[in-house]
């Protein structure tokens, strides 16, 4: 996207935003609450138009901030939902989704309703649904925002492993600088609303990365400094 502006009435959410994501790249967008991160994803996914500037994106699958699972459907049917929407039969969609259940740590929970799953499991079902949509670009909106610290750490490791197995182009929105540095190839830092790109950091580090790694700590500090956040 280039020169993108989006306002809701008098509230300017994004202004003059340029962002490029190369195929196979994981780009994290980090910024303070309300700076327009979710808006940016909805523009990329074509859910709403920009007021100015251009947005060019391949077909994208969105994993929304809340997991978006349907409470009345089983874990398997929730995971299979994108395939059903795309026209697959119930049996074919279930079979395709089930093929991933062991690797996603969901085996034995096929019939469980979302309310009976842990937060981490719900996120994995939601991520599987996003992955199965078969779109070239995955847009993940604060995928771990609702998880406690320990589960969040496990989920980050798990996501890095899942993407190493099945590489995709990913746009990840988070307010957590450390999460961005642990997962992304590039970190785009947005200002307070209206969101503008204040800095872009390359993260040329092999995965998996440890939060205690010197290079991770240094990049995290650089990102926080660029955001104007003192620790
Ligand atoms: N549909 C809408 N109608 C009116 N205002 C909106 C709408 N969507 C977003 N906004 C406003 O635009 C601004 C940016 O919102 P957005 O949700 O994109 O920010 P965010 O960075 O994702 O926030 P958070 O980190 O809290 O999720 C906010 O002030 C929000 O209230």
Automatic annotation (TrEMBL):
Positions of the ABC transporter domain: 4-217
Transmembrane segments: none
Entry keywords, A to Z: ATP-binding, Nucleotide-binding, Transport
The keyword Cell inner membrane is annotated on this UniProt entry: no
Gene3D superfamilies: P-loop containing nucleotide triphosphate hydrolases
Family annotation (PANTHER family): ABC TRANSPORTER ATP-BINDING PROTEIN (PTHR42788:SF2), TAURINE IMPORT ATP-BINDING PROTEIN-RELATED (PTHR42788)
Protein's UniProt name: ABC transporter ATP-binding protein
Organism: Solirubrobacter phytolaccae
Lineage, top ranks: Bacteria, Bacillati, Actinomycetota, Thermoleophilia, Solirubrobacterales
């Amino acid at each position: 996207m280039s020169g993108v502006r989006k306002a809701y009435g008098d509230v300017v959410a994004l202004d003059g935003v340029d962002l490029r994501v190369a195929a196979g790249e994981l780009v994290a967008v980090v910024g303070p609450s309300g700076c327009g991160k979710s808006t940016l994803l909805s523009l990329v996914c074509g859910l709403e138009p920009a007021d100015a500037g251009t947005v060019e994106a391949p077909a994208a699958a969105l994993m929304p901030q809340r997991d978006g699972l349907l409470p009345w459907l089983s874990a398997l049917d929730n995971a299979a939902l994108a395939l059903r929407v795309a026209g697959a039969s119930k049996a074919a969609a279930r079979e395709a989704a089930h093929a991933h259940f062991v690797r996603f740590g969901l085996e034995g929970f096929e019939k469980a309703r979302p309310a009976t799953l842990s937060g981490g499991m719900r996120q994995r079902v939601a991520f599987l649904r996003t992955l199965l949509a078969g779109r070239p670009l995955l847009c993940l909106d604060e995928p771990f925002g609702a998880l406690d610290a320990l589960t969040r750490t496990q989920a980050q490791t798990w996501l890095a492993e899942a993407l190493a197995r099945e590489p995709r182009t990913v746009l990840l929105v988070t307010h957590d600088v450390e999460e961005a540095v642990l997962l992304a190839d590039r970190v785009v830092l947005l200002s307070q609303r209206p969101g503008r790109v204040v800095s872009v950091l390359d993260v040329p580090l092999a995965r998996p990365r440890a939060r205690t790694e010197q290079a991770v700590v240094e990049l995290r500090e650089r990102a926080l400094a660029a955001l104007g956040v003192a620790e």
